[in-house]
Structure formats: C-alpha cells, structure tokens
User: Fold NADH-quinone oxidoreductase subunit NuoF from Faecalicatena faecalis.
Amino acid sequence: MYRSHVLVCGGTGCTSSGSQRIIERLEKEIKAQGLEEEVGVVKTGCFGLCALGPIMIVYPEGSFYSMVQEDDIPEIVSEHLLKGRVVTRLLYDETTKSDKILPLNETNFYKKQKRVALRNCGVINPENIDEYIGTGGYEALGIVLTQKKPEDVIQILLDSGLRGRGGAGFPTGLKWKFAAANDADQKYVCCNADEGDPGAFMDRSVLEGDPHVVLEAMTIAGYAIGASQGYIYVRAEYPIAVKRLEIAIGQAREYGLLGKDIFGSGFDFDIELRLGAGAFVCGEETALMTSIEGNRGEPRPRPPFPALKGLFQKPTILNNVETYANIPQIIVNGPEWFASMGTEKSKGTKVFALGGKINNTGLVEIPMGTTLREIVEEIGGGVPNGKKFKAAQTGGPSGGCIPAEHFDVPIDYDNLIAIGSMMGSGGLIVMDEDNCMVDIAKFFLEFTVDESCGKCTPCRIGTRRMLEILDKITKGQGTMEDLDKLEELCNHLKTNSLCALGQTAPNPVISTLKYFRDEYIAHIVDKRCPAGVCKALLQYKIDADKCKGCTLCARTCPADAIIGSVKEPHMINPEKCVKCGACMEKCRFGAIYKE
Assistant:
C-alpha cells in the first residue's frame, strides 16, 4: 500500500513534451531515495490543461506540478516525496495562495467543468483493467446482462436524452431502436474514432485515458441491438490510443468481459480494431463502413440507412467515442441523472478541444448550455496579449464561425445551428483581431478540397470553384460578383452533395459572409486586408520618425528590399519586398508597420 501516488500525464500532448523521460527519472530518483515501497508512479491519460504539460499531480495532497522538467525531479522527490515539503515554485500558479494550496477543482479552468465522459482521464492507469474496475468499470455491463432486457437498455438511453457527440446530434437511443427492430443473422456495432477535424483531440484523449469505457459501452450496445461483433475504426496517426486499445481488448478478453458467454449470460460479443489512413471523409458513417470492408472509403447513398443495411449490408449502429463514454454512467446512475444536466433539448455535457488564440489550451468538458463567453474568458483564461476576441470556429470544416455578437449564446445543438454553426465533434478554435476571416474560410476550403473523395460532382467541383474565388479575393483580384457566385455555390453544395462532407463544406464561407462581409468587401473594393494577413494585399512601411537607422532591418531582409544609410531613416522598396515580416520582427523601435 503506497502512502503517495504520483500521477503523470501520458497523453499525446504531454508525451510530446517529454513526460516519458520524466516518469523514467522519477522512478530512478524514487529508487535512489529508497521510496519504491512507499511511492507509486502512475502514467495516466490527459488531465485537460494541455498548455501546461508535462503535468504531474501528487496525491493525497493533490499538488499540481506544471511544465515539469527532468531537472526538477530530484528536488520534487527529495523535498516533497521524502520530506513532505511541497515545491511551491513548480506548482500551477492558480493553485498557490499565500496561506494555502487550492485543490485543482477550485481553479478557473476546472471549477465550471463537469467531467462525465472524461471522468477517468488523468485519474487511472489506462493500461490496467483493475483500476478501471476499481472506479466502477464494467458495473453497467453487469447490470445490463443480469437485470435488463435489450429493450430496457434502449429505453434508458431514450429517457436520458443522449444525442450523438460526433456531429449532427441524432438521438442515440433512437438509432439503437431502429437497428434492434431489424432482424438479421448478424448485426454490428461500430465506433468512429477517426476524428479528422483540424484542432480536435477529444476522442483521442478518451481512448488514451479510459479505453475500457468504450469497450464496455460497445458491448452494452451489442446486447441492446442483438449484435455479436464490434469494430473500432481508429486513425493510425493515434499510436498511443491504438496501443492502449489493444491492451484493453486483450485484458477484457482475459477477464471474460469480451468473447463468449459474458457474465454467464449466454451473450457473446467481441471487438476488433481497424486502422484508418487519415481520410477525413471516413468520418462519414457509410464511408467508414466501406473502409472497414476493405474498400476505398467513399460514402454510399442513403437510404438505406446503416440501421437497415450498414457494415457488410447488415444492420449496424455507429457512434463516436465520446457518445460511448457517457453510456456506462447513464446505466449506473439512471437516465434522470444524465437528463438533469444541460438544456431542454441537449442533455448532459460536451467535451471541447479548446485551441487557437486562447491562454489555456486544452480539453474541457462543460454542461450543455454553458455560454461561449464562459468557455473562452473563464475556463480558457481569455485571449492572450490583451487582444480582442473576434470569433470562434466550432465543428471544424463542417462548422461555422461564431462572432463576438453571439458571445453569450448558450452552447447546445440547436443554438449553434440557429447562428450558422454546428457542434460537430467538439473542436473549438478561438480567433482574435489578428485573424482574417476570409483567410480562415479559405483555410477550411483548402482542407475540404484535399479531403473530398471526389465521388459526387457538387463536392468535387464545387469546393474547388469556391476555393478559386476565395483565392482571388485574398489576392485582391476579386469582384463583387464573386460574392454572389460564392453564395450560389454554397447553396448548390448544401442541397446536392452526396454526403455530409460536401453538404457542410460551405458552412465556414456562409458564416463568414454573414458576420464578416465587411472584410470581404475590404479585400475586393479597398484592396486591403483589415487584419494584415493576406500577403498580396500587404505593404510594409517604415515610420521615419521612429527609425534610428540602426540597419538591423536591412541586415535581416532576405531580399535586400530595405535601403538607407546608418543613422538615417530607412525605406522599403515595395517591388523587392517579399512580405516575410522579418524586418518588423527584428525592429527594436517599433518603426516598421504593415497596412
């Protein structure tokens, strides 16, 4: 029995910052101090506050060490673990007060969160099934297989109000009910762990920190619809998640929680992994199933829907990782517990990957109905460097940009759609006054053009035409007629594309045209980028009153575009300037500006 446990984040973010080396050094120093029988080191999943990695928490005190370096380990071991003196200089700033150390759940980042899907992330060792069982894991599966009929399970989900967390928010219980109603000799349960949105890492973090919750939920789903086989479609670019899933599946089989006659109930269910090659279109359910079948990942026309003809033309349900992560707790705690959180039509919590121009980059889980302002200013710590919030992109390439005028709109499925965005899987990218909204729309269209499978003409050709127009506008070559063409193309794609990739591809353009039309007009009419982002419309200039003639800018310029004598004001030759910004970055007197 250990007197202290040291939990170190082993998620992708902290691993990339060197947390594995920190674990190895910790174990070495603990052994050197003779503490290996008293102090246990646990590699966990993501704690959420990714901006401060590598992260380490020492229990029972709950001391939260952030940005830990390998050289800090000897001091932490000798002072804290050996002598019981917390190393306050290494603690997360918000937890340190003059007279006490605050628990983590009282900090701004955590106090408004409600961790349901993420409840075990950063708490247990994801590679140890006993730790999952110790937190109530597989209890829900036991209840279902020994006390509930399949229709009872479906009714619980219907009563809970759980909606799919991977995109449009379709009621989960209803999807399961449709599949259960279709008779077949074989049915399938699939998990979408492909997560292709730029800036999204919610599903990855659940798989890395709590893989058994997905296995348990999929097994429950198999019982509810009458399926005996499950597949987890996970992208190969998630090596830590893949490894932990493989370990978890092996352990579950060993414990008799996957395979034949689970809990002596006569119910058989097993799960296999299928690795995706990173195609964004395979996040669409029919394309994902086509890929599992061994074919090129292209969507199929619907109807028939997967509940009738899905994987291998058999009844199939597909939910994403976060949706499954909620299910065991709904079974154990009851549908009323889950429905008590959130809003009238959007129950429970939602996990967001908070990124972009924000102080606290990381993973947050908040009750549905929390406002964007609360997420950005309170949980996220606001926009860095005193800049103003301009917009937030939700839903990735399929979503839209939410402007400052909707800063206080409660976030749920219906509210986001009403203002021209969507929940999507949960990426939330914050933008400030230095972001050009035309350039943002162009960025997402570039992504969509690259990721379109090309099967249907509206998406294959339409997205490319839209990108060409946006490219013209950012180069100062656009016309007002181009805006009309853009809107016409947007409407055509939404109504004629085969799958959701094409149908939602125009959303970033539609929302920026709606809320930031003045920026489009500035690019077209004034030949000016208000945010100073679009290179073709930029001009770098030198303020003669501020220039000291130090020549540092001239020596830095890679194109010899700056002329002037020592101690005399300099000038920039616009014909030679390559607009790299190196001169402005190096100037110590703030004499160089762009317009």
Summary: The two ends are 65 Å apart (CA to CA). The longest helix spans residues 457-474. The chain is about 40% helix and 15% strand. The chain has a mean pLDDT of 94.
